[in-house]
Amino acid sequence: MNPTLAPQAYKESAILTAPPERLVVMLYDGIRRFLYQAAVAMREGNIEATNSRLQRAEAIIDELNNTLDMSAGEVASNLRSLYVFSKRHLMQARLKRSPEMIEEVSKILDTVGDAWRQIAGA
Q1: How far apart are CA 122 and CA 33, in angstroms?
Q2: Sign of the C-alpha dihedral, residues 94, 33, 119, 62?
Q3: 57-113 per-position pLDDT tens digit
Q4: Are 57 and 101 in contact (CB under 8 A)?
Q5: For the segment 1-22, what is each residue's pLDDT rounded down to a tens digit?
Q6: Cys bridge to 83: 1, 29, 65, 95, which one at CB 3.0-4.6 A?
Q7: All domains of the chain, ordered by start, with CATH?
């Protein structure tokens, strides 16, 4: 195996073999990472990196939202509201060039991610 491909192969293997709750944790970890990177890039005035990272975080939020089982009741409904709020708030952060608004969304979603970490035992 090519040594430069080993980290990618490991990551793919971890994703393919992870239980569903661990996959959700990975998604929340991705949101955290991308929102942090977006806030840093925004502070540095790097609009291209800011938009790229926000788009990646928003894509994960969309995936979480689109895969909600709405028959699960109030929890799913509350999560949907949280995801919609997060997307709107990130749009406003972009328009106002406010890294603080990005960090607000990150803190809110981190709370949910922490709950998933406990569920997954991570």
Answers
A1: 17
A2: positive
A3: 999 999 999 999 999 899 999 999 999 999 999 999 999 999 999 999 999 999 999
A4: no
A5: 566 665 665 455 555 566 888 8
A6: 65
A7: 20-120 (1.20.120.340)
